Amino acid sequence: MANIIEITDLSDPALDLFLRLTEAQLRNRLEPEKGVFIAESPKVIRRALEAGCQPVAFLMERRHIQGQARELLEGCGDIPVYTADREVLAGLTGYQLTRGILCAMRRPKLPTVEELCENAHRVAVLEGIVDATNVGAIFRSAAALFIDAVLVTPTCCDPLYRRAARVSMGTVFQVPWTRIGDTAADWPHPGMERLQGLGFRTTAMALTDDALSIENLRLREEDKLAIVLGTEGDGLSPHTIAGCDYAVQIPMSHGVDSLNVAAASAVAFWELRRR
User: Fold this and answer.
1) Which residues contact 274 (CB under 8 A, 6 or more apart)?
2) Distance CA 219, CA 209 (A)
């Protein structure tokens, strides 16, 4: 049964997880992956629990304990649940965006690239995408449009960042993912070689003069394809484009030269899915 704890003082150190630690501090807080993350909203928390993530503590409005959080709490044992009325919690940073429920969870241990890609045929690689909204939207498209796994480069936004997980509607817990490298020096090389060594042909989504149309049948016939998407604004680095087997672009009309990376990912995932 949950351990209900009334909040009387927002300076209580027990609330640091929710109120005062930065995302970087959360990532390095606890084992096994030396960190925690914050999931918000019942749907995101439910999908995280279903994926096996271990909850540490909840923070919620009192009315949710017997409301939309009741089912969540029933499966979490004697977990601390910090609570108060809405008026007391209204001063929390960003609280109005949480839909009333936050859950601190231990970060799961990530698989290796080799483990993740063992049975995959379509993977997405996110190079330096820093906007959490875009990362979350890409994961949602990946889940819906037949992507087997997602790889994030060392300079990419953390998929477990609170906003990324929320925008993804919890699909960051459904689509397998891991990091391809630990430092910026690990991408694009030797990361690219790891993918190619695993049998993947690499596809750079890039606006180059020699880029193939995304409709090219040769792309659809590839058994194992890694779709590489670049950061907002600048796109993929020249070294990444040069190292890929293909450069690919989406045909466009009305003089539009590019799409937002999240929108482009949805088009690419659908058109390049394994037939």
Assistant:
1) 121, 122, 146, 223, 225
2) 18
pLDDT tens digits for range 136-155: 999 999 999 999 999 999 99
Residue 92 has a pLDDT of 57
| Residue range 223-234: mean pLDDT, rounded | 94
Q: Which amino acid is at 91?
A: G
Locate 202 and state its tokens.
Answer: 């690499």
Place of tokens 């540490």: 56
Alpha-carbon gap, residue 238 to 142, rounded angstroms = 25
Report the distance separating Cα 48 and Cα 191, nearest Å: 28
Long-range CB pairs of 69-76, under 8 A, 24+ apart, other chains included: 69/42, 69/101, 71/46, 72/42, 72/45, 72/46, 72/101, 72/103, 73/2, 75/49, 76/2, 76/49
Say yes or no to pLDDT of 172 above 50.
Answer: yes
Nearest to 23 by CA among 35, 15, 5, 8: 35
Measure the CA–CA gap between 90 and 94, rounded to whole angstroms.
9
**With 0-12 CB in 10 A as exposed, 13-18 as middle and 19+ as buried, what is 34?**
exposed
Residue 100 has pLDDT above 90, yes or no: no
Could you tell me where the beta strands, DSSP code E, fall in 85-195? 101-106, 122-126, 149-152, 177-179
Q: Using alpha carbons, select from 210, 223, 203, 205 the residue that is nearest to residue 274.
A: 223
